[in-house]
Every structure is written in C-alpha cells, then in structure tokens.
Write a structure and sequence with these properties.
- This protein is an all-beta fold.
- It contains no helices and 10 strands.
- The chain is globular.
C-alpha cells in the first residue's frame, strides 16, 4: 500500500526558506520518478518539480526555478524540497507523489508565506 507523508510546512515571511520532506513507503521508491505538487486555494493542483529515480535529472516549474531545489535519498525512501526566497504566491498545500502520480495522495503540508 502506497503511503506518502509530507512534513516541514509552516508560516514564513516573504524571502524566507522552508525545507519539505516526503517519507515514502509501500513501493520501490528508487524505481520511480518523484515530484512535488502544490494546490493553492481555488486553484488546480500543479506540479512544482520532479526528480529522476536516481536523482540525476530534475525539472522545475518556471515560477520556482532558481528558488526551489528538489532532492532525494533513496537509502531513506525520502524526498526533499528546499524552498528559498519564498513569495506569497507560493502559499499552498504541498504534496509529494510519483510522476506520473499514484492514485493515492498524502495529507500534504501547508506552506503559508505572509508578513
């Protein structure tokens, strides 16, 4: 059974940083491309960044490129998202999943960027 547990969100001022973590279980983590997604109030869920199964390739959405860094530790079945220079428009619930996604999703972690 696929389980994805996101953590690390919180309230941060504009320009601040957060590091999100995604603990995965129930599948062969190192066999899958993984990604971070986010959903802001009233908007569709969107992909933020993705990383290859061995971590040697990645892609970012245009509005986070240069500010966010995706990484993974296959020995720990864990993925990370380092978010720097945060903006109010980054406010959303952040989710991790495979790319393409599994049917099940975790609960997400709320990121709020506000002064």
């Amino acid at each position: 059974q696929v389980q994805l547990v996101e953590s690390g969100g919180g309230l941060v001022q504009p320009g601040g940083s957060l590091r999100l973590s995604c603990a995965a279980s129930g599948f062969s983590f190192s066999s899958y491309w993984m990604a971070w997604y986010r959903q802001a109030p009233g908007k569709e869920r969107e992909e933020v960044a993705r990383i290859s199964n061995f971590g040697d390739k990645n892609n970012y959405a245009g509005d986070v490129k240069g500010r966010f860094t995706i990484s993974r530790d296959n020995a720990k079945d864990t993925m990370y998202l380092q978010m720097n220079s945060l903006k109010p428009e980054d406010t959303a619930v952040y989710y991790c999943n495979a790319a393409p996604t599994f049917r099940s999703w975790g609960q997400g972690t709320q990121v709020t960027v506000s002064s």
